[in-house]
Amino acid sequence: MEYRCVQCGFQVKTLFVQYSPGNIRLMKCEKCKAVADEYIECELMIVLIDLILHKPKAYRHLLYNVLNQQRTHFQGLLWKLLFGFLVLDAYRSLLVRHDEEWGMSMSISSYFWIYRKILVDVFLGNFMFLCCFLLAIRKLLKTSAQFFRLGKLWLAVLISSYFKILLVAMMVWEFPPSVIYIIDLLVLSSNTVALKVITESDMNPCVGACFIAHAVKFCTTQAF
């Protein structure tokens, strides 16, 4: 399996050696001489906090050392994440259009028209996002096609869009519409860190690639 040092990103053979149940020794990276993955002995809450703080080492731990593409359940996990991503995107579109188009007296045809718009927002918007994202990566990052697999890249995008879960809170509490766009910015910044980690590129091109893809998606959903 392809494990990585969370500090420098160098590939390592193993993360720890287990002598007995509950007795392990963390391995060190051959390049930076630091512990390859300190998160192995950390609570899940520590990992979540570091992900929220956009620490690249937390993303390396999650994308390389936990959710490894060579594991048997990778494809199933990818489809589940994709389904959750699309559902949250549909709910976001529903929230945006709620104040704009929903009223007390609406016919059945009006409801069908709104739900049709939501489906167009979700599928066409994400299709444009993916196309522009891959094109921007190729042009700005100049990353060769064999460097990353599409599945690993798509997994990084889905995982780093975890801020969309905050939309669920809007089912319970009432927030101003601006919160939706704040969540979009958080997703953009998280996607940028994940892209930097997965492609091992500089931050500026990653910001550019993610910004272009999100901007095209936003303009597409607004236009339709």
Automatic annotation (TrEMBL):
Family, as annotated: Belongs to the ARV1 family.
GO biological process, one term: regulation of plasma membrane sterol distribution
Keywords from the named record: Endoplasmic reticulum, Lipid metabolism, Lipid transport, Membrane, Sphingolipid metabolism, Transmembrane, Transmembrane helix, Transport
Protein name: Protein ARV
Record's subcellular location: Endoplasmic reticulum membrane
Recorded topology in the membrane: Multi-pass membrane protein
GO cellular component terms given for this protein: cortical endoplasmic reticulum; endoplasmic reticulum membrane; Golgi apparatus
InterPro entries: Arv1
Main location: endoplasmic reticulum
Membrane spanning residue stretches: 77-94, 114-141, 153-173
Function: Mediator of sterol homeostasis involved in sterol uptake, trafficking and distribution into membranes.
Pfam families assigned to the protein according to its UniProt record, in alphabetical order: Arv1
